[in-house]
Amino acid sequence: MGASTKRPRGRPAIPKELQRQRLIAAAFRALEKGNYEKTSVADVVREAGMSSRSFYQHFSSKEDLVAEIVREQGDKFVAELGTVMRDTLDPLARADRALRTFLELFPNQTVDLERLGGEAGQRVREARRVYVHAMTELVQRWLERLLERGQIARVPDRAAVELALTGIEGLSFRYYSEGRRDELLAMRPALLRVFLRALDF
Question: Which of 30, 59, 88 is the last residue of a domain?
Fold first, then answer.
């Protein structure tokens, strides 16, 4: 008689990356339902239909999860910004669309990212630094193409571009952290004027 094969019991295991994405999506939903301070790991895992053990296999704390969300959102924005730079021909429309894409990246729920401490706070700061650098690179390449086509007279200094982007990014984070997202979105025309002035448009 051949060796008997046992049929596995229960549901098949969810792949690790899918678990992680489910937890991140659940965190967004849980945060939309309530205040960040009052939202617990238990709320997130309940929303995800997963266990606390699964949560801690991916994240060390709620703050660690938020830091990962910021990193992922930054990666997503940089990818979307690349699409905007490729697909929108008019320079002013391109700048406006890029700014709108960035401002709409911020979710409705307020999280005071400026006050995240420890490793999570460090990771948020690093993610912000990385995507400001990536935005600067994309904008610089765009300006160089405009110069080649004769659409602008000169490419501004990289420092001026980075300073403008850092200022807009910092202001956006502050307004978001203070629960002023609607005000932030309403500021888009003013922010666009500041950005274009920095680029000598």
Answer: 59
Do 95 and 133 belong to one domain? Answer: yes
Residue with tokens 């807009």: 168
The burial class, CB within 10 Å (0-12 / 13-18 / 19+), for 45 is: buried
Q: Which of 84, 116, 141, 107 is nearest to 33 (CA)?
A: 107
Q: Which domain holds residue 88?
A: 62-198
Average pLDDT, the chain: 82
Nearest to 74 by CA among 18, 12, 130, 136: 130
Quote the CA–CA distance of 93 and 187 in Å, as a whole number: 17
pTM score, two decimals?
0.74
Q: Quick one: pLDDT at residue 39?
A: 83
* CB neighbours of residue 63 within 10 Å: 20
pLDDT tens digit sequence for 2-12: 454 454 554 55
Q: How many domains does the chain have?
A: 2
Q: What is the 3-state secondary structure of the chain?
A: CCCCCCCCCCCCCCCHHHHHHHHHHHHHHHHHHCCCCCCCHHHHHHHHCCCHHHHHHHCCCHHHHHHHHHHHHHHHHHHHHHHHHHHCCCHHHHHHHHHHHHHCCCCCCCCCHHHCCHHHHHHHHHHHHHHHHHHHHHHHHHHHHHHHCCCCCCCCCHHHHHHHHHHHHHHHHHHHHCCCHHHHHHCHHHHHHHHHHHCCC
